[in-house]
Design brief:
Blueprint (H helix, E strand, L loop, with lengths): L10 H20 L6 H8 L3 H7 L3 H24 L6 H16 L8 H9 L5 H26 L9 H20 L6 H16 L3
Helix pairs in contact: 1-4, 1-6, 4-5, 4-7, 5-7, 5-8, 5-9, 6-7, 7-8, 8-9
């Protein structure tokens, strides 16, 4: 899942990317509130002063982790789906990849952005702004794919992309809740059934 370690990166860039990979795993398990320069130093074996050389403050660290997570989300979820045909095949691939992302072994506590949203939904500031901006961007991506499905004649012309994107996001949040909190083993199966039922309601005749 990591986008790090390419040959074009400098040693400093590779080190920073490796730090952010570990930070993302920590955030997945302990949340953004659980990430500090100290906890990251313990996890990476680096000194606090060494980490401060990469991130001048805790807020800068949190923003860097979120940017890293959003970039990985794009590489794991969005980019592979673009190889699918426009419309519903591509949209379904996005959703399946989204589920894969939340179930990844690299994210032992699930999607850090979903967890972060619950922590920062009532905490104004740059971290909340980045979380909200990333999720708004993803919603717009889903709506764009839905408009393509309408243009391809796969969904009824009267279909409201915003409504379907809203329901897709709701399904994803329920999966996260049921799997992580309730230990419900059929969460993925139920989610895909719900997605197919959603598409079927609006499918063009």
């Amino acid at each position: 899942m990591s986008a790090t370690g390419t040959a074009s990166q400098t040693k400093g860039e590779r080190t920073r990317a490796a730090i952010l990979d570990e930070a993302l795993r920590l955030v997945s398990k302990a949340g953004l509130d659980g990430l500090t320069i100290g906890t990251l130093a313990d996890a990476t074996g680096m000194s606090k002063s060494g980490l401060f050389a990469h991130f001048g403050s805790r807020e800068e660290l949190l923003l860097a982790v979120l940017a890293h997570g959003q970039a990985q989300f794009g590489e794991v979820v969005f980019q592979p789906a673009m190889a699918k045909p426009r419309g519903l095949p591509r949209l379904r691939a996005m959703f399946v990849n989204w589920l894969d992302w939340t179930e990844s072994a690299e994210l032992p506590g699930g999607c850090p952005m979903i967890g972060g949203a619950a922590e920062f939904d009532d905490k104004p500031g740059p971290v909340r702004d980045m979380l909200a901006g990333g999720q708004r961007s993803w919603i717009e991506t889903l709506k764009r794919a839905l408009r393509q499905a309408i243009d391809e004649g796969q969904l009824e012309r009267a279909t409201d992309p915003e409504q379907i994107a809203f329901e897709m996001f709701g399904i994803a949040l329920v999966v996260h809740h049921h799997r992580r909190l309730l230990g419900y083993k059929k969460a993925r199966e139920r989610a895909l059934t719900a997605l197919d039922s959603l598409f079927q309601r609006y499918r063009a005749s």
